Amino acid sequence: MNTPILDFVQGYAAGEALRLHMPGHKGRSVLGPEALDITEIPGADVLYHAAGVIRESEENASALFGSARTLYSAEGSSLCIRAMLYLALQYARLTGKRPLIAAGRNAHRVFLSGCALLGLEITWLFGDEGTPLSCHISPETLDALLSAEKPVAVYLTSPDYLGCRADIPALAAVCRRHGALLLVDNAHGAYLKFLSPSQHPLDLGADLCCDSAHKTLPVLTGGAYLHLSRSCPAALLPMAEAAMRLFAGTSPSYLILQSLDLCNRTLAGEFHARLVERAASLDSLKSSLRAAGWLLAGDEPMKLTLCPKSHGYTGEALAAALEDRGIVCEFADPDYCVFMFSPANPASDLDTLAAALRSLPVRAPISTLPPRLGTPERVLPPREAMLAPFETLPREQCLGRVLAAPTVSCPPAVPILVCGERIDAQALALFAYYGLDRLDVILPDFEQGGMSREKTDL
């Protein structure tokens, strides 16, 4: 497969032109890649007005993923999530539907900010996993909600941070019956297309989907895809670039674009065979760990999620013990330790992790469970809450207050409580469990969506 972006940039760098354009390093090397770091000069095309090398490369990606249209992002899946929400809003306007999104509660914080910026309403789908990171939704639950509230779209996170996947075929069928779009945050699952058979949301029924290419494919950090499926309403296809352009910066990284371009050649080559091989070896590792008494979560083929309390370790303690042995995990919290693999990991990496886990002494099991969160009281819509004046207080002083911006770390960037919800004792306990000591809360005079009479008279 050809690589039009990479070929153009390499040719430009080899020509040693006098660079009287951005960026300021002028192609002179300090870090190493400067010669290939260019801006949107003639011939380099324009991202989100693509008609040249970028458009040709995106069409290569579209052919690989089987989409009606694939667009590149140099700003991660965050940009693509906002674009999906914009397209859902446009669909609501085209069809006369209510601009309401039904979303799994484990949505990334960017989903919240995107809905707030666009004025989209949210109705939440709650799971019963005991962790904010996962949210299993049954077709029956979704069908009942769509019948009652009639949202324009459903938004799912699959795979989630722990490697749990939604039943997309069954949920997509429910969405089709109700005329709702299905949007999938597939940030962790770009590689799923290249398994046998494909397990990618595009092939399972999603209308719109985002992939963080950099998370699981050989792409520089920030590289991502927005996919519009062949089942997506045709009216949305010509709006896709405008959707990305609305939220994107105007100086895309051509280093990231080149890595997306080159990745097409990799995906068209031996990637599938190497992926299948590594997925099989990781499956064997999972079986051996279960046999040794480890508890695992999730079903994603290239992610290993350990529940180490069965061996007497919190997730953070296990991560620290492995880091002492030169192994760095993707994510750890009190209950889980997450490891991400790709075909770039040789089999010896799996052996190294297995040996390190075997070397750890087994301790008395830890029985502590995370506090349960009930159904929070919504005081304000997310848009009003996110844009309201706020103060930052110690957690202990926030009982009964209304959360402003969601307090989350990244990873995993999944809110415990959503902005505009009241902080009750259960929520406080959960904030304490995850070590969040200070919270942003709306100023009391703004908790009902406006200032008090005394304040407005000032």
Detailed description of the structure:
The protein is of the alpha/beta class and 458 residues long. It folds into three domains: 4-268, Type I PLP-dependent aspartate aminotransferase-like (Major domain) (Aspartate Aminotransferase, domain 2, 3-Layer(aba) Sandwich), CATH 3.40.640.10; 272-359, Aspartate Aminotransferase, domain 1 (Alpha-Beta Complex); 382-456, Alpha-Beta Complex (Molybdopterin biosynthesis moea protein, domain 2). It has helices spanning 4-14, 53-65, 76-95, 109-118, 139-149, 168-178, 201-204, 213-216, 240-247, 254-268, 271-291, 315-323, 347-359, 382-386, 425-433, 453-456, and strands spanning 69-73, 100-104, 121-125, 153-157, 181-185, 208-211, 224-228, 295-297, 303-307, 331-332, 337-340, 390-394, 438-442. The strands form three sheets. A seven-stranded mixed sheet has the order 1-7-6-5-4-2-3, with helices on both faces. It has a four-stranded antiparallel sheet with strand order 8-9-11-10. A hairpin with a 5-residue loop joins strand 8 and strand 9. Helix 2 runs parallel beside helix 10 and helix 5 (139-149) runs parallel beside helix 6 (168-178). It is globular and about 65 Å long. Mean pLDDT is 94; it is low at 451-458.
The geometry reads as globular
Average of the residue pLDDT scores = 94
CATH superfamily of the largest domain: Type I PLP-dependent aspartate aminotransferase-like (Major domain)
Number of domains: 3
Record field, number of beta strands: 13
What level of helicity do the residues show?
Answer: 25-40%
Structural class of the helices, strands and pairings?
alpha/beta
What is the gyration radius calculated from CA atoms? 23 Å
CATH class assignment of the largest domain: Alpha Beta
Number of helices: 16
How far from one another are the termini?
A: 66 Å
